[in-house]
Design goal:
With 183 residues, this protein is mainly alpha-helical. It folds into two domains: 92 residues, RNA polymerase sigma factor, region 2, helix turn helix motif (Rna Polymerase Sigma Factor, Chain: A, Orthogonal Bundle), CATH 1.10.1740.10; 58 residues, Arc Repressor Mutant, subunit A, CATH 1.10.10. The protein contains eight helices and no strands. Helix 4 runs antiparallel to helix 6, helix 5 crosses helix 8 and helix 6 packs across helix 8. The longest helix has 20 residues.
Amino acid sequence: MLAQHVKAAIKALEMKSFQEIYREEIAYVWRCLGRLGVDEKNLEDKAHDVFVIFYKRYRDFDVNRPVRPWLCGIAARVALDFNRLAYRRREVLTDRVEEETVASHPEAALDRKNAQRQLLAALSSLDMERRSVFVLHDLEGRNMREIAEFLDVPQSTLYSRLNMARQQLNTLLGRKPVKRCGS
């Protein structure tokens, strides 16, 4: 029993404080939530929800692993729950996916903004199950094992959802499908 308390104390000393993690990761959580379909007017509340869940469970977190995948998984569940609510049937798209950077060429900036607008519109047409796995895998760079753990869904189901999401996005964006090996 004493050994468990000692291990818990050592773990607490090794881990960053909640406030440090919050300051470092809040912008990342906002971007994740935005990509997962949470509209701008609800981002603050949903980011707060992510960090409330994180706060309740962060002492159980393995300090040898990065915190972002865990936060991203929590954000995916929060966004999924939010988008399933009955009163929320219409999504308002925004032009902003990430903080805007000053482009050296105005044409490049306009092209990027148009591409972002098209991608957000296409993403909004996906159901949340497909959208979640696409955002987590293709935009956030998470592997399927992590996503399966986050969402508590079998990997085979996630691969199927990812392929369907890619096909649907390719159709909506007017692109030819890209053959992928094993991803």
